[in-house]
Amino acid sequence: MPTLQSGAKTYDPMQKTSGAGKAMSDGMMSMMKMGKMSMSSMDHEFADMMAKHHKDGIMMSKNILAYCKNPKLRSMAQKGIPEQIKDINEMTNWMKTHQ
């Protein structure tokens, strides 16, 4: 299986016990758990799920920045972090004002 290399770090997507492979696997598991919604209204459920999804996206983007050498992927990851932070803040503020 091909791996992405950046300096001394190697990203092996099949390695689920450490490094970026574990972080990506943990992120996907977190996304799968989103089906267990705790809020009663559909609007709040959507906003809550999307905020969690965006938090996972930030974590995955940080892992790309730490382990990936490809300039295009690094650029997309770097650009995505502030966009997702903005979206999380919007959804969190919406939930606070629509209880």
Protein architecture, described:
The chain has 99 residues and is mainly alpha-helical. It has 3 helices and 2 strands; from the N terminus they run ββααα. It has helices at 19-32, 42-67, 71-97; strands spanning 4-6, 9-11. The chain has a two-stranded antiparallel sheet with strand order 1-2. Strand 1 (4-6) and strand 2 (9-11) form a beta hairpin. The longest helix is centred in the last third of the chain and has 27 residues, at 71-97. The model is unreliable at 1-8 (pLDDT under 50).
What pattern of helices and strands is seen along the backbone?
Answer: EEHHH
The tally of beta strands, per DSSP, is 2
The radius of gyration computed from the alpha-carbon positions, rounded to a whole number of angstroms, is 16 Å
Q: How large is the share of residues in beta strands?
A: 5-15%
Number of helices: 3
CA-CA gap between termini: 48 Å
Q: Uncertain segments of ≥5 residues (pLDDT<50)?
A: 1-8
Coarse structural class = mainly alpha
Strand order of the largest sheet: 1-2
In percent, how helical is the residue content?
55-70%
Shape: flat
Biggest sheet layout: 2 strands, antiparallel
Average pLDDT score = 78
Outline the secondary-structure elements.
Layout: E1 4-6, E2 9-11, H1 19-32, H2 42-67, H3 71-97
Antiparallel strand pairs: 1-2
Helix pairs in contact: 1-2, 2-3
